[in-house]
Amino acid sequence: MNDRRVSVKWASKIGFVLAAAGTAIGLGAIWKFPYVAGTNGGGAFFLVFALFTVLLGYPLLLGEFILGRKSQSDAIGTYRKLAPGTPWVITGWIGIVACFLVLSFYSVIGGWILLYIIKAVTGALSGLSQSEYGALFGSVIQDPVQTLVAQLVFIVMTILVVARGVQKGIERVSSIMMPLLFILFIALVGRALTLDHAIDGVRFLLVPDFSSLTPRAILFALGQAFFTLTLGVSVMVTYSSYLSKTQNLPKSALSIVIMNLAVTLLAGLAIFPAVFSFGLKPNEGPVLLFAVLPAVFDQLPFGMLFFIGFLLAFLFAALTSAFSMIEIIVASITKGDQKKRGKWAWTIGLLIFAVGVPSCLSYGVLNFPLIFQKTFFDLADYIVSNILLPLGALLISIFVPLKLSKEDLYDEMKSGSKVGRGFFLVWFYLLRFLVPIAIVLVFLNLLGVFSF
């Protein structure tokens, strides 16, 4: 078997943590969480989401780390190596296909962010009414030329980083973007908390009102806990395959979970106090960031400057996640041959752009239903979010305790760490029993087998 060459490694332990955290901290934490929380009870939703992230997301994340470092192989090679001659290799292929499709429509949103940064810098977002901001967003996403060019620019930015390699590309850029993301959000939160009635937004996010927490909202929180960490697509398997045996896997996984929760919290604290301060509703849906927040920031002194900071943080989160989606495919093709990396990064990236063109045009010239009354964008999102991601997460949660012995798992976990047998057993049984049951519940709900 042609396994990855040992030369492909992270340069530092913190570099891996920041890159993996960048993968987890994406649109799910900054774009999706605020409007999902806003429509599902605020503080109660956040509390349940945080508990699920720790009790269920963390065990699965650690399981992916163990798989990757033990195999020292790519997403497909990992399952071939650890379960040779079995159909389990389909788990790796699910990850490849999912990442390809995700980035095909994820890059569309990345393009919107770039367009809004340009509009904010040039003053095109200043002085409009709230209805005009909504109309502007509609006109932006319907413009085929603007959106396609912006989507291509976002893809090219991603390709340029991945083509430079793990250390010089992904690790180096993530190590700059992630600290900047936190700095920008802390500044935004500081400004938001100075607004009149900001405490109402803080209370909405941090004070649980369990009367507003429905069974459907609990399932949303459960799904968000898994998918906001980019679990189920073997991205974390690929990233951890570049690790040495000295990396403390339990500590690294915990750091990523904490960072992800922190950014989710900071995003909420930057958005909800501002929204409540101006008497707006927190349940505006996906357009909250593009049609509502500009109206809020425009009413503040130096508001557009803060909105640009928010968009930059949003862009950094989107890019660091996009790096991993191309990397998992490139790694599976090149098998660690760095001479092939540049060529395949460009090939895969441009193919993703081509496949994403219909999604980009789904709000304009291709805005008509295809299958199940869904546009290209909605269909790609549905296939990934409702089928491939939960299926991949379920298979990984079953694979780890089924195909690897307890002793092999324990040996890999304690390599580089000082975890005791008790911690290992709690993790093992959570992953073996509780995590698959939770994923099945989310899966069935997403597929509409049952609903509330």
UniProtKB/TrEMBL annotation:
Keywords: Membrane, Symport, Transmembrane, Transmembrane helix, Transport. It comes from the Bacteria. It comes from Bacillus changyiensis. This is Transporter. InterPro entries: Na/ntran_symport, SNS_sf, YocR/YhdH-like. It holds the Pfam family SNF. The chain crosses the membrane at residues 12-31, 43-67, 88-118, 148-166, 178-199, 219-242, 254-280, 300-323, 344-366, 382-402, 423-450. The lineage of its organism: Bacteria, Bacillati, Bacillota, Bacilli, Bacillales. It is found in: Membrane.
